[in-house]
Design brief:
With 222 residues, the protein is α/β, with parallel strands linked by helices. Helix content is 27%, strand content 20%.
Length: 222
């Protein structure tokens, strides 16, 4: 079984949810939202009001932190710094949101199409595992998969991470009932890809991205 949901730069409001229900024919099981502002999503910082709306509608939250410096993805220390940013944003995003720390919730680092080194993944994993949060990686698994698998072979903490991949991509919006069977591209090792963004909304589109996940275990639920 896969759970259907969306992610978007658009703040979650009652009107936004009404639109998603109209387009998708269902209430999403979860919504992905950025904890921090960034140049990809200028409205990126999730608010406390959004959390309350999700709570009222029993919608889980997948917290995302955009990687602010795609040039620094080479060293173990770079990975540590990225994890620390995720941790701090989850504890207090400065906009009324604190992600509960003691529930195994995944906080995802958005690396887009970047290709971090194996050392980066090791530094990220070793730092995140010291918190109560679970470390997550969102991006194109066809790009980063090889280095990720190398890191997983070197460092057991990397195996604690959750991967959210965006391949293969489907080019048309689908209603929830017509969502594809879960079919994320696998990593070139035995590591599971637990979340799949199968549709990415083009620039200027009013539709959010569409996603499927295999479990709600790493989602902030209410």
């Amino acid at each position: 079984m896969a759970y259907w949901g969306v992610d978007s730069c658009v703040p979650i409001t009652t009107s936004y949810l009404a639109d998603v229900k109209s387009w998708g024919g269902a209430t999403p099981s979860f919504g992905g939202r950025y904890l921090t502002d960034n140049n990809v999503c200028p409205n990126g910082a999730m608010s406390g009001a959004e959390v309350e709306i999700c709570k009222e509608n029993y919608i889980g939250i997948i917290p995302i932190v955009y990687n602010w410096n795609l040039a620094n993805l080479s060293t173990y220390t770079d990975g540590q710094n990225a994890a620390q940013r995720c941790y701090e944003a989850a504890l207090n995003n400065g906009n009324g949101v604190t992600v509960p720390e003691a529930r195994g919730i995944a906080v995802f680092l958005d690396i887009e199409t970047a290709i971090p080194s194996a050392s980066f993944f090791e530094g990220f994993a070793d730092t995140m595992v010291a918190s109560e949060y679970v470390g997550g990686i969102y991006g194109n698994q066809n790009d980063f998969g090889s280095n990720f698998c190398t890191a997983a072979g070197n460092d057991g903490n990397v195996k604690q991470l959750v991967v959210w991949g965006n391949e293969p991509a489907i080019t048309t919006w689908t209603k929830a009932v017509n969502a594809p069977a879960y079919g994320s591209t696998k990593l070139p090792c035995s590591f599971s890809v637990s979340a799949w963004q199968y549709y990415e909304s083009p620039t200027g589109s009013s539709y959010p991205d569409e996603d499927e996940i295999t479990t709600l275990g790493f989602v902030w639920t209410f």
